[in-house]
Amino acid sequence: MPNVATVLKEEISRIARKEIRKEMETLKKNSAQHRRDIASLKRKNTRLERKVALLESKIFSDITPEVKELEETKLRFTAKGLKSQRQRLGLSANDYGKLVGVSGLTIYNWEKGATRPRKAQLARLAAVRKMGKKEAMAYLDNLKKG
Question: From 7's CA, which of 1, 23, 49, 114 has a CA 20 to 30 Å away?
Fold first, then answer.
């Protein structure tokens, strides 16, 4: 006759394995679904980044003729002038940076005099300098919609 303790121990182990297997199946299914969702989001993100790049190239191609003309002329830059222009338009450094094609931190550094814009960036600054407040806002809205 088998030992009751041994039989009980084996039965408990068998039931525990069965329960664990059941729980693991649901976890595996959930994990697989999460991986599929992540892959889908990555594909969507890639598509959106391509669209943004395309739209940015189109938008900046609209400004490019003006920029090329301005690159040929001598342009001056002052941090104080940049800050007053940005404040006149009522834009944050980040939004102003989007107009110019740089980050908000770059605009902040230019305003503080820590760094200076390159020649192409000076030409973009000059193109933005010609914009009015409504035109700048419309341009930013266009960037956000694209």
Answer: 23
Round the average pLDDT of the chain to a whole number and report it: 85
Q: What is the CATH number of the domain that holds 44?
A: 1.10.260.40
- Give CA–CA dist 100/136, Å, rounded: 11
Residue 74: strand, helix, or coil: coil
Q: Pseudo-torsion of CA 25, 28, 32, 34, nearest 10°?
A: 110
Between CA 71 and CA 75 the distance in angstroms is 8
Cα 28 to Cα 11, 21, 32, 40, 89: the distances in Å are 26, 10, 6, 18, 54
- Structural domain span for residue 86: 4-145
Q: Is the pLDDT of residue 55 over 90?
A: no
Question: Is-above-0.90 flag for pTM?
Answer: no
**pLDDT band of 34, cuts 50, 70, 90:** very high
Rounded to whole angstroms, the Cα distance separating 38 from 61 reads: 34
The reported pLDDT for the residue numbered 71 is: 54
